[in-house]
Amino acid sequence: MMNSMPPIPASRRRPLDRGGAPALTVLCIAQDAAVRELLPRVLRFDKVLVTADFSEAFMMATSEAPDIAFVELGIGDGAGLSLVHHLKALVPDISVVTLATKKNLDAAANALSLGASGLLLMPLSGDDVLSSVWGIKQRLVERAERDRLERAAAVSARATGWIARIAEVAEAPDRTSAAKELVEILVEVTGAKGGAVYLAGDTPQELVLGAASPSLEGAPSAGTEQRILETFATPRRLLAVPLGSRNVAAGYVLLEEEKPRTGEGGPSADPPIDGIIRLLTNVAATAIAMLGERERAARGGAAIKDPTSSAYSFAYYVDVAGREIGRARRYGRRFSIVTMVYEPVPGQASLSATEFADRMLATVHDTDVLARVDENEFHLLLPETSGLGAHSVRRRIARLGTGEKSAASRALLVGAAAFPHDGQDLGKLLRVARARAEASKSSVVHRLDPDSNTVPDLLEMLIWETVNAAPARQTSAVRPIELDTAEAQALAQAVVADAQRGGAATIVVAHHAGLCLGAAVRSALGHEVDNVALHALDLRAVPGCERIEALAVIAEHGAYALLARHDDGILRGAHAADPLLADVLAERLGRAAGVRVIG
């Protein structure tokens, strides 16, 4: 989609064989009929070209550019040796495997000096052929993955500049001007033929055209989201991206791509740039929302309080947060923000926005600032609160909801970010807190059996999750772990060292005499434990915990959980950078030991 970094054209993408490896073009030059019959049969998923004629071999090499050639040295009374040199000249990247009988071994040695990559003695076997091509397929897979990573890195490297330009949209004179700037930026970033931006109207669900490229001149000037998408975007096969991750009324971006997609994740999709588009539209939604608040304030219609709840308005929240950032920078203070999205679970009793705001205000301190961003999204500013304090507030907030713990935890998404570890400007802090709130939605904690409360039960559930659950793309996804004792201790020391970057941390670890994670944690901490609350718990007397190794770390800038069973010098289990799982693991370890480790 980008002009400067286009995806690999479909015509240049290699087909895959049944095992998922790239198919090769194979040239076989041999007089032996058995060889000419064996290669197509063994390499039936690759393109195999067979000939016994010199001239035809050169034509095939020139037109097909084969990946590998099998050359019988005895062809043409020994003239096959010259083919090695000629093939390397025609196709520099080709791998040439020579085929020889015992009487051709001297020629085989000369062939290797001319650039041949291998020698096979005749008669050939299928295993000989497969071994020769497997290394080449591996190199092609590695090269394709390297190319993909380089393209993704190039897109990500430019993303910082794009985000800065999007953020400047908030400084536009009005929302219409901001929409024009946004269209220009997104068209430039994506290489689209044109684009349009729809902004939230004065009534719920109404969208108003803010700006459009000349190619989309016929775009409706206003209408509901459903009407605009069904009557305009879908017939013209436009890519529609919401301005904001869930608040549809915030607006929509429509992009006219060079090659319209055939469906979700279709062949024209380029995952790196798709992720950048979503990120840019999220930033743009915040910028336009701030601009809208400023416009309302200029018209004298802005209020400090949200008109439908007890929370403050987002404009007031931004103003207070700006002053708090200034104080924190000037005096070296801490503060945190918490993002909360209340998503009622179908079939469960739910709270109204007013009820949720009232419960929130009864939970937080008087100095905290609660603001409502949209219908179900709230932000909380916590002055003089560190990252650990934000974790504590996050736990208290997570207990709000319908009264049923499992339903409430699914209904309420909560994410926290702390200054300065997670960002030093409001935009970055909001993005981090929102991303963590979104990640909490897929946490494994929501799939735990509430009736299974022991540490061994938790371990079995996590192991089941790593084996049977669909792969998750979130950084907080649970992943299997299998390490020997020394590697596990090194991992624990690295986690503790990273946790200390933010200063304060809470660490809960299983500890006993001998080599264990507890010993590794104590060694990593040394004597600098003033800011670390360490709970080293001996669980060997607890049924089922005799061989348990566990580590839960809750730090200023994140959390980590590891739970495994020690078996003959190997730790087998699961781990994740999941704050919810770290809370659950710490609580269950403390319960097993009969102590309270987190509030």
Automatic annotation (TrEMBL):
SMART domains xref list: REC (SM00448)
Residue stretches making up the Response regulatory domain: 25-137
SUPFAM superfamilies reported for this sequence: CheY-like, Nucleotide cyclase
Name of the protein in question: Response regulator
InterPro entries: CheY-like_superfamily, GGDEF_dom, Nucleotide_cyclase, Rev_trsase/Diguanyl_cyclase, Sig_transdc_resp-reg_receiver
Organism: Polyangium spumosum
Domain of life per record: Bacteria
GO BP annotations, alphabetical order: phosphorelay signal transduction system
